[in-house]
Amino acid sequence: MQQTSYEGASPVHGPLRTYLCGSRTFGAAVLDVLSRRGNHVTGVSSPTADERGRADRLYTMAQEQGAPHTPTEEFRAAAIPEDTDLILAAHAHVFIGARARNRARLGCVGYHPSLLPLHRGRDAIRWTVHMRERITGGTVYWFTDEVDGGPIAVQDWCFVRPEWNASDLWSNELFPMGVRLFERVLDDVEAGRIVKQPQDETLASWEPSWERPPMERPAEEAASA
Known about the structure:
The chain has 225 residues and is α/β, with parallel strands linked by helices. 29% of the residues lie in helices and 22% in strands. The protein has one domain (15-224): Rossmann fold (3-Layer(aba) Sandwich). α1 (24-37) runs parallel beside α2 and α4 packs across α5.
């Protein structure tokens, strides 16, 4: 068993300063959590609309709350204020590279709807259902240069009912689980606990995308790769 790493950090005495990259209803749910907790939102990056031209839910909520907003296609490291403590990625399909992560004091955490290191990749839920697995889960992990490969902050698990499709699994279990796990990480960070459990690479699996476009990668990151 790999050793969990606990990195010391000063407890947060004022509002935690967070930047949110995300989209859709899940991103909006995480923004709602940040607002309810009294965390200061230094900015939000999301699409302004979906592929049908409908306003993105996270974008709409950010506008309602007066949070500074950067469209996904315009996202760059400089969009993140230097006094940001933590970046959160909630259904974000933009590349959050080292330059962006380093703008935040603690880095970036994101939610992946699988028990990492299993089912890395953008379509983890579809593959879980396709493979007829009966147990799955969700992971909030620390972003690194390895996609879906960073150390784990927190995980939880759930059963997969045989009659469920991918949408059922997401809405009934993995969506609310992700919101809860983000809250647990925020609790840890505010208390000065930084949990980083290395992923076991001997168990890692990577699943291909089901006909989705690649995530956006800022030009500044691509040029330095």
